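tokens incoming
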């Protein structure tokens, strides 16, 4: 299970700035490029939950994907030892 670092109450701009790897996740879910133009302005005030609602995205799925993008991969440390 992924530890939740990003919540629906965080501003989109803060998420993208603090976790640049999340930009592609937003884009994969159909969000516009929020790094420039009018969308950049709205990203400064828009919370992740509002962005999900505005773009008809299921919030839980978006948050899961965003948090997976920022969590370190543990697969390498869980090797079975013989």
């Amino acid at each position: 299970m992924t530890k939740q670092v990003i919540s629906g109450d965080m501003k989109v701009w803060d998420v993208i700035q603090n976790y640049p790897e999340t930009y592609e996740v937003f884009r994969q879910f159909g969000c516009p490029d929020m790094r420039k133009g009018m969308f950049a302005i709205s990203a400064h005030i828009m919370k992740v939950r509002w962005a999900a609602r505005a773009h008809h995205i299921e919030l839980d799925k978006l948050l899961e994907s965003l948090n997976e993008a920022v969590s370190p991969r543990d697969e390498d440390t869980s090797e079975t030892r013989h």
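note: The chain is about 50% helix and 0% strand.
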